[in-house]
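Q: Entry one of two.
A:
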Amino acid sequence: MKLLYTSLLIILSLNLQSQVDSSLVAYYSFTGNTEDESGNENHGAADGPLLTTDRFGSEASAYEFDGQDDIIRVMDASSLRLEDDFTIVAWVMPYTTKDHTILRKNSSANATNAFPAYGIGLSGTSHFSLNIGTDQGPTGISSQQAFFNKPYEVNTWYRMIARKQDSIIYITTNPFDKNVFTNYQSSMEGDILYDSSPFIIGSRTQQASNTFEGKIDDIKIYNRFLTLEEVTGLSFDDEIPEEEMEDDPNVENDNTDNDLVVDVEIIGDPWKFLLIRLQEKTAARVKLYEGDELVMDREFDSNISSVNIEDLVAGSYLLKVTTSAGSFEQEIIIE
């Protein structure tokens, strides 16, 4: 069950100093360069992005990405293959509302694993998301995701916090200088799949459709689960049981019985899969039309479904998704 809650937090400590410990496998402060300051030598190589001011106004302390093809690559390393619990923190400022890749391990849709081993990003439909590719699913792989729909403001700094603890994954954000945190959690199944692709920052395929446009700064990757107290230096109860979340009058749960939130993504170049995500796990019927002709009709009982579309020709299709909560239609362009 996924729960969306927003809490207004009181600052009990303004000490945001980084704690570098043995669990920190990569740290990119972007202070003048793309070097890893964790001591693990996972240094990056910039291809396009330029140094710029950070959220404090300090010169040459963040990188600006052009939204076209800018990217930072880090060679594959065992320390970046996060097999168990992990925490990823990054500060970002998007300039536009679009699909923004912030970072991901396993780079492209044409890699051995079509999904990222792990990746965080923003979407043009206002998703803050954490994606994890595992060995579960009808094709032997699947994308496990924690995400929420909350419009983000452009030209605003956000802290993105992605975490995994056992089979629970979390995505949390808060704007700079505002003590408002939005947290979303979801369950996942299977083991994370890795290949030898690099760890990349700012893009997926160096195309405008997925390259970050804006600033990225202060990326930290830990190979353990950190509480929000550890990440932020603030003090609050991070791990609230689900029953308390539902009953707490101070917790806002946006997932009502009538909600139907769908995200659709074409995976592969050329196209291979149509990935359909629902806000909740539920029985759904999916139909795809080319004009008046029904070309696909299937049912699934999950919040994520992967549909093979390799045999379809390029063109415009109408996707219809129906659940007990309602229906959804979207035009799909395959090209």
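Q: Entry two of two.
A:
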Amino acid sequence: MSLNGSPAPRARRLGLIVLMLGAVCIGIMPNAAKLAYGEGVSPLGLLVLRSAIGAIGLALFLWARREKLLVPRKLVPKTAAAGVALLMAAGGGMGAVAYIDVTVASVIFFTYPIFVAVVNHVRGTTRLSLAEIILIALAFVGVALALGLRRESLDQLNYTGLGLALLSSVGITTVILTTTATTAALGTVRANLHMNLWGVVYFIALALALPALGLAGESVYPQSAFAWLYVLIAALGFTLGYLLFFVAAKILGATEASVLSILELVFMIVFAVTIVGERLTVLQTSGFVVVVVALVGFELVSARKG
């Protein structure tokens, strides 16, 4: 089946299960990262280790299966572009919160399914019905509510922060579009391996350049067993989450998988409440419900259309 073909009912169910497992992994990642920060690890240090651990794990998996590790020369620019996009996504998000509220930055980041859907709609790869468009918009409203977006946060906006947050969203959009394309040629594991390898190169370069330019302090790496544990969990969540997402995208198509990946936010919130001990307001809880209802509706409409 093609990357964006209509899956059979059995394949669709498999794709949804894989996508949900990936969303669980991604949902764990920021909570593990928060615990790692509490142990003194710096955000950039975590990004370097996250990609490095992911690359090592994927390379060992391919080696154990006696599969190729290298990619054809003609595909190197695409895998390098995925790494740049990964840097854009992480760097844009980290930079944005220095200028605008983290809630606003997070809401803007979650516009990426809209960008993926628009690009594929314009390409003619996946045509969206009016019902699907309405449900995507409803899910986005739910995201804003679930993240606790408040009017006071909107009163403190500036163009630099908005631009960086948008850069983060465009970055993850590009990661999805480029890696979905390379997955068809390389397979999911090898495509993700090279995305992570380029990510290691770029994040290390950033970790060296920012302190040298006086734009950030030195990166701090784990100094305790707990810190290493949290970093490892974050890295596994990131690597498995993206790996499973692209497996699901191969079955469901990039647009449907991207929209349904908003489930990542649902699991982020669940783990934030159960593991980190955060509490939800009534407004956030209502947003949580809106997201779930909108995504279930989107899937029902997509399945009927397919």
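A: Comment on entry two: The chain has 13 helices and no strands. The mean pLDDT is 89.
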